[in-house]
Every structure is written in structure tokens, then in C-alpha cells.
């Protein structure tokens, strides 16, 4: 008799139903696992048989075939151990109670029968809910935020024996501390930076507020020490807290990558310019999320952007355009979400002092052009805001800046308007252009003005689209229903980047 027990497999964040089929067949005693198992799944036979031996069942003299269906998909995780053990017990008559077809079994087994969590538990649980399972047997993990899964009964079990007793209707009191279902909470923000503490850069702060409100990408260009990194590291303080669904998505990605994150707050990733393309985009034999996916729903800050390998930077084109990244390998092809705000910072030239009022630039025109060419035109096109920064004279700066909390409240209100307008959690920087134009069409005079500026500055269609998105966000911050002329003007000025020739820099 073939016994069928259900579990969950993962392909990136996408979960699919795995049917664990167990049958005893005549032949030489062994346990054979088929269905494209990788090394961690093949080794399950030793873990499972040792766990069954600890449970008091010895099947070393039997020939058992375990089939993981669907057979065409590679199985990567030891998450199927528990399902295999239950299937063997059922096939050999040691478990007589019926196993519901609406129940999934997740967890790795240790040699003494203890059930342990593995990477990717949260996306597997969310997939189980989406696939229509009613119950999930799994090990307790305090990092799993499960309180919102009202349609899914999560049964926490510590050992194989506990699982069998539960299936047979015996509710055994555990000797461990009582399980509690963890909740996602928005812990107080622990930032040591605040926009109020940054002297000057009022235009840059305004531009960053617009970027936070609409989810727009920003490139900052300025000499060393002008405050590019400081502004970027303070930027997360004006971002709204993550919504519940967004938090689950982010935590799932971090679990797959084996990293921890502070729940409730948008992630901030700051890879070094020596980072490889695999670490930035993701990959490996079994593709894992890279920096672009770990920055999902948050910020990816590329300091010294021109120092990154040109090939690596060009790999950002797909995630910047689509909000996701597809990684293809021989073993599998996975797609991870990568919807982030890109903050780039770079110097105007290799020495950094082109256009400076206080230092002389030592770079030749050829060196300057080669430095700028490290960031390709398509990447420049995908940056919504281009900021030119200069060193602040502290003796002349007297204007008081607003606090991050004050700015964040305006950003939250602007995003609320966007969510209501589009009927879903999406910003002006990410919504489809068709829906943007349907909800906020430009007047004829505004279209003519934009076309004139585009012709004068040789802006591509993509840049013109980004200006319209910026204008919509600026109008949301101002509280106007239509895109105002002033908002369109301000959006166009955010695409102006100071460029100095060698002669102009010397004259200054």
C-alpha cells in the first residue's frame, strides 16, 4: 500500500505542494529517495531512520521507496524529513490514525527525533495557506510571525513522538515553556541620525522627501565630505513603517538568505563597491536572494557608485524596471521580489574636486569622461532625481531644518493618498504608466511644456515618464488632486545635474 503525506517545497518565495509517497517493496534492505533530491534531501534517509529508531521502530531490514512528487522539480531543503517519517510510520502500520489530506508537515529531524526549524519556514507556511491547507505541523520558532494566519491551524510539535501522539488524538502536555504565538510589532525606531541635525542641504532634503513619498530613485553627485553618505544613512528615518503584508514578505526573504532583520522598519542595505554581481543580484548553485532582494520594500544605497563594476551596475536594469529579479541556473530558475529605492552617491570626477570652490581638480578631461562612463546611460535614465551637492559653509548656514518625524508624517500622508488612488499598496514611482495617466492626466499646456524641455535637454521617453511621476508625488505632498504646474516645474528641476568642464572648474 502506498501512503501519501503532504509537505511544501520552495522555488524562491513561491511554494508548491510536495506529495511524499512511501511504499515497502521487496528487495535488499535500504531506504531509497527519488524525485530529484539534492544532497540535503538524500541525507534525510539517515536522519529519518535514526529518528525512527529513537522512537522505538526499527526499519533497517526493510526496503522503503520514498518518492517526492512532482518528480520534475529539484528538492533542496531538509524540510521534508517530518513528512517522510510520518509516511514510513503510516506505511508500516505503526501509525493507525488517519492523516488529513489538508495537513502539511514541515521540519527537519535530528537523530534523537527532535524536530528543528530550517531556513524558509515562513514562506513555506504562507505558501501552505495560499495552497488551501487547513493544518500545518511544524517546530516552534519564536521568529515566526504567525498570529495573522487565522485560516491556518499551526500545530507546534517538538518531537516525532509528540507528532504521532497528536495525530492519534492524545494531547500531551509538553515539559517545555508554553508556546506563545509571536506577533509582528513596530518597535520604536532606534536611529541615531535625524534630518534636523544635518546642517544645510535643504534642496537635497526636499528631494529625498519626494523620493520617500513616491518611491523614486536618487543619484547624488558631489565632492568628498559634502554629506552624501550622511544624507543617505538618514534617509530611512523618513520612510513609513512597513505594512503587515510587506513585513511578512521581507522577513521571508531574510529567512531564505539566513539573515536577521529588525521587524517593522524598511531594510537599508549598503553593499561595498567591491561586491560581486552574485552578492548584489543573488545567485549560487541554489539561487539565494542578493542585496537587491534584501533591500525589497526598503533602500539600496550604493556609495561610490562609479567604483562598482560596470557589468554589475548594468545588472540593476531589470530590478529597477520591473521590481523583481530572475536568476537562472542549471538546476532551477527563481524569481525574487526586488522593489527598492536606489540611492546612489558618486564624485564628479576621479579626484572628487571638479567644480569645487576650495580645491583644484587634477583630473584630465579624458579621465573625467571615463569616470562618468562607468555609470551607463540606461542607469542614469532609471534615476528619477539627480542631485548636485556642494560643501556647506557652516558659518553662513542659519536656517533651522525640520525633524525626520515631521517629514515622515507628510510622507505617510502622501503615500496614503497614492494607495487610495490606485486601490492597492503601490507608489507613484512603481505604478504602471497607463494607470498613472488614467488617474492623473496632464493638461495640454503641461504636455507641450514637457515636450519642449525634453527636446532642449534630450530627455528620453523614460525620463519624461519619471518627471510626470515626480510631479504627481509633489502634488500629493502639496495636497492637490491634479498635477499642478508648479509641481511639474519642480519635477523638471530635479533632473538637472551640474556639469563642469575643466575650464569652468578652473575659473571657479
From TrEMBL:
All residue ranges annotated as the AAA+ ATPase domain in the record: 214-374
Domain of life: Bacteria
Sequence similarity: Belongs to the Mg-chelatase subunits D/I family. ComM subfamily.
Name the record gives this protein: YifB family Mg chelatase-like AAA ATPase
Amino acid at each position: 500500500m502506498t501512503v501519501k503525506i503532504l509537505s511544501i517545497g520552495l522555488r524562491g518565495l513561491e511554494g508548491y505542494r510536495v506529495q511524499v509517497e512511501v511504499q515497502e517493496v521487496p528487495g535488499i534492505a535500504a531506504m531509497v529517495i527519488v524525485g530529484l533530491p539534492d544532497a540535503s534531501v538524500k541525507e534525510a534517509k539517515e536522519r529519518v531512520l535514526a529518528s525512527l529508531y529513537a522512537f522505538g521502530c526499527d526499519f533497517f531490514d526493510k526496503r522503503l521507496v520514498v518518492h517526492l512528487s512532482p518528480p520534475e522539480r529539484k528538492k533542496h531543503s531538509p524540510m521534508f524529513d517530518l513528512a517522510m517519517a510520518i509516511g514510513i510510520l503510516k506505511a508500516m502500520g505503526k501509525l493507525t490514525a488517519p492523516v488529513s489530506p489538508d495537513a502539511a508537515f514541515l521540519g527537519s529531524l535530528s537523530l534523537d527525533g527532535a524536530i528543528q526549524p530550517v531556513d524558509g519556514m515562513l514562506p513555506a507556511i504562507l505558501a501552505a495557506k495560499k495552497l488551501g491547507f487547513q493544518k500545518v505541523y511544524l517546530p516552534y520558532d519564536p521568529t515566526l510571525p504567525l498570529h495573522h494566519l487565522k485560516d491556518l491551524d499551526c500545530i507546534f510539535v517538538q518531537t516525532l513522538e509528540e507528532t504521532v501522539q497528536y495525530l492519534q488524538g492524545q494531547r500531551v502536555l509538553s515539559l517545555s515553556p508554553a508556546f506563545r504565538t509571536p506577533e509582528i510589532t513596530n518597535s520604536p525606531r532606534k536611529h541615531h541620525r535625524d534630518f534636523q541635525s544635518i546642517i544645510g542641504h535643504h534642496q537635497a532634503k526636499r528631494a529625498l522627501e519626494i523620493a520617500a513619498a513616491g518611491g523614486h530613485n536618487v543619484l547624488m553627485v558631489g565632492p568628498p565630505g559634502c554629506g552624501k553618505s550622511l544624507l543617505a544613512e538618514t534617509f530611512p528615518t523618513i520612510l513609513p513603517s512597513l505594512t503587515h503584508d510587506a513585513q511578512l514578505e521581507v522577513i521571508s526573504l531574510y529567512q531564505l538568505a539566513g539573515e536577521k532583520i529588525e521587524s517593522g522598519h524598511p531594510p537599508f542595505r549598503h553593499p561595498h563597491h567591491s561586491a560581486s554581481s552574485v552578492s548584489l543580484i543573488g545567485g549560487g548553485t541554489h539561487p539565494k536572494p542578493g542585496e537587491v532582494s534584501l533591500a525589497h520594500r526598503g533602500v539600496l544605497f550604493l556609495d561610490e557608485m562609479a567604483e562598482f563594476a560596470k557589468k554589475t551596475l548594468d545588472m540593476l536594469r531589470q530590478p529597477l524596471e520591473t521590481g523583481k529579479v530572475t536568476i537562472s541556473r542549471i538546476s532551477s530558475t527563481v524569481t525574487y521580489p526586488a522593489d527598492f529605492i536606489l540611492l546612489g552617491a558618486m564624485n564628479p570626477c576621479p579626484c572628487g574636486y571638479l567644480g569645487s570652490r576650495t580645491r583644484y581638480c587634477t583630473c584630465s578631461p579624458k579621465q573625467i569622461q571615463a569616470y562618468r562612463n562607468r555609470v551607463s546611460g540606461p542607469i542614469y535614465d532609471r534615476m528619477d532625481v539627480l542631485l548636485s551637492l556642494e560643501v556647506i559653509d557652516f558659518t553662513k548656514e542659519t536656517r533651522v531644518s525640520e525633524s525626520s518625524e515631521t517629514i515622515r508624517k507628510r510622507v505617510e500622508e502622501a503615500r496614503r493618498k497614492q494607495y487610495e488612488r490606485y486601490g492597492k499598496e503601490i507608489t507613484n514611482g512603481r505604478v504602471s504608466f497607463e494607470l498613472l495617466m488614467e488617474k492623473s492626466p496632464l493638461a495640454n499646456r503641461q504636455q507641450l511644456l514637457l515636450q519642449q524641455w525634453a527636446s532642449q535637454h534630450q530627455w528620453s521617453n523614460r525620463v519624461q515618464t519619471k518627471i510626470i511621476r515626480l510631479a504627481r508625488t509633489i502634488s500629493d505632498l502639496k495636497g492637490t488632486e491634479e498635477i499642478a504646474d508648479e509641481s511639474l516645474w519642480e519635477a523638471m528641476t530635479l533632473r538637472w545635474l551640474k556639469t563642469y568642464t575643466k575650464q569652468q572648474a578652473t575659473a571657479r
